[in-house]
């Protein structure tokens, strides 16, 4: 079944379209990454899918329900984690969840059980009675995910869940989201700027200027845009070209910064190069494909610079219901 479907979706702010005829189909149970640069229309799309913003034209369904005609029912079937924290800093973690439980209309006993389960799932049980202002950014994000899950949503929307987090905290948030996918089977729809986060997805769509420019599995996307770039300097580069061909079956080309080769997994090749090449390796760098590479491939241009500053879900003013 399809968890999210958008057909010819438009959102205008004034006379310019932020979302420009967007089509999307997200299978139930998938973790779906919605990638794009600043100002591409990600937050505006998520705002329409979560019923916070009325589409100017087109239609969208979430959990089988039309977002424009049945918004209240859609809201009961979704959870939202906003880009900016909307937690009450003066309340404890459990109190923040209790407030949400009230909004979801859970009874007292039901709420108690659900709150305990969510704190447990996000490994926050020990911290339930601590005021949120004493939480680190990563703990707050985990609490926000717990809150998004409180009403047992069929679809969880997260707007840039890892933006502003350091790499360790980002990995921890993903560990929880990955577990959620394995254990709960709910549909997770999240926006991001980072192509690296695609590895956590079943499918991804890339949006630019309000339109989906490509969509597929991470493997499909990677295979289209190519592999890691390894740049290597050795004590004798011409001999290294031969050794790379003979011992590794790899074709290296001389470049301004050293020998360049494209491989599917640079990180595993590098240690082998150092030990098996038979030549001293002076320097080596590995660069993975980025969102810029995808853009370049599909649009013929780099991600535009100075994209307009985007607004976030929590502060959309104009056009909001
Ligand atoms: N309330 C608003 N009023 C006017 N223009 C807006 C409003 N919200 C967004 N926009 C514009 O619509 C376009 C799409 O913005 P949106 O926030 O959806 O992009 P985004 O992909 O989420 O960006 P980011 O990754 O920076 O959050 C941008 O040009 C933005 O400046």
UniProtKB/TrEMBL annotation:
Belongs to the ABC transporter superfamily. Drug exporter-1 (DrugE1) (TC 3.A.1.105) family. GO terms for molecular function: ATP binding. The lineage of its organism: Bacteria, Bacillati, Actinomycetota, Actinomycetes, Kitasatosporales. The keyword Transport applies. Keywords: Antibiotic resistance, ATP-binding, Nucleotide-binding, Transport. Residues 4-234 form the ABC transporter domain. This is ATP-binding cassette domain-containing protein. It comes from Streptomyces heilongjiangensis. It is found in: Cell membrane. It is a peripheral membrane protein. Its main location: membrane.
């Amino acid at each position: 079944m399809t968890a999210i479907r958008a057909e010819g979706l438009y959102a205008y702010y004034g006379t310019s379209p932020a979302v420009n005829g967007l089509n999307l189909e997200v299978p139930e149970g998938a973790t779906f990454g919605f990638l794009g640069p600043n100002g591409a229309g990600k937050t505006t799309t998520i705002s329409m899918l979560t019923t916070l913003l009325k589409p100017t034209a087109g239609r969208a369904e979430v959990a089988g329900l039309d977002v424009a005609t049945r918004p209240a029912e859609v809201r009961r079937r979704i959870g939202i984690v906003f880009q900016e924290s909307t937690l009450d800093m003066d309340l404890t973690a459990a109190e923040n969840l209790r407030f949400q439980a009230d909004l979801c209309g859970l009874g007292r006993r039901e709420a108690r059980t659900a709150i305990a389960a969510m704190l447990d799932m996000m490994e926050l049980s020990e911290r339930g009675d601590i005021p949120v202002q004493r939480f680190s950014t990563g703990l707050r994000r985990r609490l926000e995910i717990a809150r998004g899950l409180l009403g047992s949503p069929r679809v969880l929307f997260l707007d840039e869940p890892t933006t502003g987090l350091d790499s360790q905290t980002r990995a921890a948030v993903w560990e929880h989201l990955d577990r959620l996918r394995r254990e709960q089977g709910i549909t997770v729809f999240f926006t991001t700027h980072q192509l690296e986060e695609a590895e956590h997805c079943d499918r991804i769509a890339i949006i630019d200027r309000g339109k989906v420019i490509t969509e597929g599995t991470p493997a499909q996307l990677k295979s289209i845009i190519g592999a890691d770039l390894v740049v290597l300097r050795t004590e004798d580069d011409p001999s290294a070209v031969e050794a790379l061909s003979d011992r590794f079956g790899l074709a290296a080309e001389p470049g301004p910064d050293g020998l360049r080769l494209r491989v599917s997994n640079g990180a595993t090749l590098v240690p082998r190069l150092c030990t098996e090449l038979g030549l001293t390796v002076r320097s080596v760098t590995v660069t993975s494909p980025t969102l810029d590479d995808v853009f370049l491939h599909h649009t013929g241009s780099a991600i535009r610079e100075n994209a307009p500053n985007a607004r976030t879900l929590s502060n959309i003013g104009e056009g909001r219901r």
